[in-house]
Amino acid sequence: MPPMTDPAHSRSSGTAPCGAILVPVYENATTIESVLRGVAVHGRPVFVVDDGGRDGSCEIAAALEEEGVVAGIVRCPRNLGKAGALRLGFARLRELGFEVAIAVDADGQHDVEMVGPMLEIAEANPGSLVVGCRWPLHPDQPRKNLVGRFFSNVAIRAHSGVSVGDAPCGFRSWPLDATIHTRGRSGRYAWEQEMITRLAWRGVRIDRIDIPAIYHPRETRVSHYRFRRDWPEGIAIYAWLLLVALLPIPRGGREGVLRCWRRRFARLLSPGRLRGGRPEAWTDRLFVVVAISVGLVVGAVAPPSAWAAAIAGWVGWRWHAGLGPILLAMSPWIRANPEAIPLDVALTVAAAWLIGGVLRPRA
Q1: Which of 71, 187, 252, 295 is deepest in the core (most CB within 10 A)?
Q2: Which residues have CB under 8 Å from 224's CB, separation 6+?
Q3: How distant is the alpha carbon of residue 63 from its chain centre?
């Protein structure tokens, strides 16, 4: 059995913050043993959250606990869904004194060899949320999954100004204290994407790590995601976060507010990196296309009033749209008030904003 780190000893001795590995399990009997044995070799305590499955997964985990591979099992009172299982597991780990949780899915689609590099990043930056990014893309990855992934990235970019490459990826390093004290509305799969936005609002740094994209054959792949149930919930959560983002409510204390303002000014002056093939660059490009398209539509139909211009500017500022789309949306008022901002100046600034993203170093 790998040696279990004592969290209290870790804090008192001044060593790196202690992390544990958390594996939520719901009817993954065919893969759970290999996953647990694979993550256990990295020398950190492994905890399992049993989410009420009935296929024998918990019995397998219990046998591995007796063997010493698993440090503990957290049992949900009923099937809580992935979000509920993770929250329950995080609370238990925090009670035990751990500061970081490495979440690994039990379906075998996360490369257990990447737990080591994830631990290095997490323990060097214990207050950060580190999100796995499946890159390069797998040739068998379903196209509908890619579409959902890209638009999830774009929504988070609008909410928080953070460019991520793989918002749905469940392989993550979670800062336990910030995560436990951050409430989300989703109860299922959308919770992981929602928490990127909410933690960013608190001032938590968002990092990434590239991981291999693993997709098992369709006949052996186990997925509990239900499109008709989970997709509408995700859309509703994104819409709610877009609404909340418009409200001038300070979030995350002084550090969170300062980080948010710095990010807004950065996005105001540049749309992000618009070159390169990485998913984060694709996120910025898709967002810019959407923002400019909306700005053009608003500029074509909005009345030339100060109120319309103020609303366009506020929405663009709160949604991190940047100068280009904001000026396009305000163009009716600019045309009616050339003494305030000459139209040619506004268009020049908008073009410079767009070019700035192309000239930035590749992501």
Answers
A1: 295
A2: 26, 27, 82
A3: 34
Q: Which two tokens stand for residue 56?
A: 């024998």
pTM, full prediction: 0.90
The Cα–Cα gap between 91 and 14 comes to 23
**b/e sequence 295-333, b meaning 16+ C-beta within 10 Å:** beebbeebeeeeebbebbbebbbbbbbbbbbbbbbbbbb
**Token match 């001795």: residue?**
13
d(CA 80, CA 83) in angstroms, rounded, equals 7
Answer yes or no: are the C-beta atoms of 90 and 22 closer than 8 Å: yes
What's the CA gap between 121 and 131, in Å, rounded? 11
At 282-334, the pLDDT tens digits run 999 999 999 999 999 999 999 999 999 999 999 999 999 999 999 999 999 99
Cα Rg of the chain (Å, integer): 22
DSSP 302-331: S-S-HHHHHHHHHHHHHTT--HHHHHHHTH
* pLDDT per position as a tens digit, 50-91: 988 888 999 999 999 999 999 999 999 988 888 999 999 999
Helix, strand, or coil (residue 208)? strand
Handedness of CA 75, 81, 82, 87 (dihedral sign): negative
Contact 168, 223 (CB under 8 A): no
d(CA 218, CA 32): 18
**Count of residues for the chain?**
363
pLDDT, tens digit (0-9, with 9 covering 90-100), for 11-28: 433 444 589 999 999 988
